[in-house]
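Can anyone check this?
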Amino acid sequence: MEKEKIIHLIPKKKKGFLRLIFSRLFIIGILILFQLFMLLSIYAWFSEYFPHFTALQTLFSLIMVIHLFNCEMDSTGKLTWLFIFMISPVPATILLWFTKKDIGNLTLKGRINYLVTMTKKQIPQNKEVINNPDIVSSCTDDLCRYLNKSGCFPVYANTDVTYFSSGEEKFESLIEELKKAEKFIFLEYFILDEGYMWGKILSILEEKAKQGVDVRVMYDGMCEISTLSFDYSERVEKIGIKCKAFSPIRPFLSTHYNYRDHRKILVIDGKVAFNGGINLADEYINKIERFGHWKDTAVMLKGEAVQSFTLMFLQMWNITEKVPEWDKFLGYDYEQAESNGFVMPYADCPLDDYKVGENVYMDILNRATDYVHIMTPYLILDGELEASLKFAAQRGIDVKIILPGIPDKKMPYALAKSHYKSLIKSGVKIYEYTPGFVHAKVWSSDNEKAVVGTINLDYRSLYHHFECATYMYKTRCIADIEKDFHETLEKCREVTPETIKSEKLCYKIFGGLMKIFAPLM
């Protein structure tokens, strides 16, 4: 992209201390802290001026503990809340009520449920595909039926999948495919950051918009306090591109900010789709270095399964649209794709009752007969997923996990290490990628099954984020995924009981402490 075109989308920044004081993030932070201070002040006032407050507080705590044991929450989360109740019962009760009632998300939840219900039959399942003997014998049909309880996620046969073992490979193909666009381009990414990668993409999008292509860009609202200016969507729209931020940050206490759009979807003309861990920022293609070499992965789909990603994008886009649009972007006549396997794109919504991301992973672990190989940036496990990993290893499955050797965040890194001893004792083999940071979210099993997507092994991905992934059964690219895993493994150090003993004391201390609050992270 020409340098001028990148610059005209970058806001002028104040320098030094003044830039901090007048930044939007600073003002929002001050206002939220003020609201917290007022709530704590009211609590302190009650404690001081009401003589029977302590007795009421004890009774309140007992009632809430009984409620916790009877509510629908994973056991690890209950332990965290019990610890918080022990420290400060009444504020903990208010906080639990605040999060359980989810008042800040009632409108969003209602709107999403409406859109999902409206589109549950939008893409009919091909009966011949779901009744295929291969699909039935592998129980993939059961998994498909489960997924379709939460949305519209058919399993497809007529789709070719290409696996990319790096951000650089994906970026190269992405640019080629964008240039071919004729009807529409949909982008939905967790992170956009101005620089070489996004600049080059944006120049193509601007040119395509001028040609009459329907170009839409959606990014998570957190970008407006981390990588982009608060008015970025308006400035992008000035060059002919429809653009919006999902759930922008406002200066009010709310559970609304807990649910982020962590998905990475790019759809071109309903014929090509990209999915995986790669955001649109320079570190993802190693144009800049932040935590050593950035290891990431993605897949490109061509064929019928692309329409599932089209539908996922439209569901999120139409949250703020008065008149939802679906039909004109779906139902194309697809050419026969060169594929010998099956593909099932799926999404995970934090506002329904289905733990889709975690259950798909556990299904792979529980049905594996030979191996399960995993790449993930984080390892912050609840009791059920940790038990599934250990059980798979204990029954003789080769379970290997590749994690970062250089972390992007110290606390999650320490938390991951707190699981090492228990997992290794059960037979799980853990490796750390010495050249840098692993951001890939990849599972492969038995040379037959694989998942590439956005879903990490942490509470935020499994419980609090909007996520998506591509499930594959007997597709040709599974061999490429497994080859990449082994090539990555050669650049890793194995974690052993001896290396755990020699681990830095700070990681041991902080890992143990932060484990208490893991479900809140």
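Reply from J.R.: I decoded it. The first strand starts at residue 159 and ends at 164.
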